[in-house]
């Protein structure tokens, strides 16, 4: 079992898990030479009083970009959706704890129960709750790697629903809110098939937001910094619309699965 966070000074009440692959960990501002330009949009700025992150060593610390710098370590991380999400909701719900767990290039099967990625996510979530905070939602953006093979498409919906069941069971939160992204790009030719599978997931307290139409970098795979800011705000809109009213009570089964689309201006 994971040990408790070492820094007892920070005790964020509302905790959000950020998981999936590279568009969650963030490649905004990273060029083709894997160098991050260091530019932080104002919507992604730090707030030392309200936004914290759980480091790889399970310490609560002030959150700053790149959020996944010590988690997704095999590639260069840049701007993701986490900080713009947190900044968009902080004044409405209070101190926020972000738990980065995403790793680029990972297929859904690599997140199955018992795998390193899955167990690390669960252990980090448990460690984040050690001081009394509550997990309010899992933000999930994954699927680009699964567009490569037809058999992955055919099993994606069932495997994603199984992942949701497993996470909820292992965290003893049967109605944990899940906000997932319908992907905007893919590594293979089955992008639209994966998108369809993501939109068909039909479980209580599961909301899907659509990244299609957000600007992609030159690689036609990863979101730009500007697009990541918009995605974070879409996550925030979905959370505030569907789940924020339950801040002081447990989310219950009457909140049905829905598809949430945010206008892209």
Automatic annotation (TrEMBL):
The keyword GTP-binding does not apply. InterPro entries: Carb_Esterase_6, SASA, SGNH_hydro_sf. Keywords: Hydrolase. GO terms for molecular function: hydrolase activity. Signal peptide: none annotated. Residues 13-240 form the Sialate O-acetylesterase domain. It comes from the Eukaryota. PANTHER family: 9-O-ACETYL-N-ACETYLNEURAMINIC ACID DEACETYLASE-RELATED, ESTERASE, PUTATIVE (DUF303)-RELATED. This is Probable carbohydrate esterase At4g34215. The gene is LOC104238764.
């Amino acid at each position: 079992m994971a040990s408790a966070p070492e820094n007892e000074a920070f005790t964020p009440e509302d905790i959000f898990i950020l998981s999936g692959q590279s568009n969650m960990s963030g490649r905004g501002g990273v060029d083709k030479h894997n160098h991050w330009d260091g530019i932080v949009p104002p919507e992604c700025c730090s707030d030392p009083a309200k936004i914290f992150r759980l480091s790889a060593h399970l310490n609560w610390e002030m959150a700053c970009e790149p959020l996944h710098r010590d988690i997704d370590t095999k590639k260069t991380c840049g701007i993701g959706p986490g900080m713009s999400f947190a900044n968009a909701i902080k004044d409405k719900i209070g101190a926020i704890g972000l738990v980065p767990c995403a790793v680029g290039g990972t297929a859904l099967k690599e997140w199955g129960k018992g795998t390193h990625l899955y167990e690390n996510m669960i252990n980090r979530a448990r460690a984040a709750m050690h001081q009394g905070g509550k997990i309010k939602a899992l933000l999930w953006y994954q699927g680009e790697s699964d567009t490569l093979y037809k058999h992955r498409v055919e099993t994606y919906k069932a495997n994603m629903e199984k992942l949701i069941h497993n996470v909820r069971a292992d965290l003893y939160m049967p109605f944990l809110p899940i906000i997932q992204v319908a992907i905007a790009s893919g590594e293979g030719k089955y992008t639209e098939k994966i998108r369809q599978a993501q939109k068909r997931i039909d479980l209580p307290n599961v909301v899907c937001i659509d990244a299609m139409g957000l600007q992609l970098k030159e690689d036609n795979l990863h979101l730009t910094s500007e697009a990541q800011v918009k995605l974070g705000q879409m996550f925030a809109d979905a959370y505030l619309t569907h789940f924020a009213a339950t801040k002081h009570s447990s989310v219950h089964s009457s909140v049905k699965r829905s598809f949430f689309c945010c206008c892209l201006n």
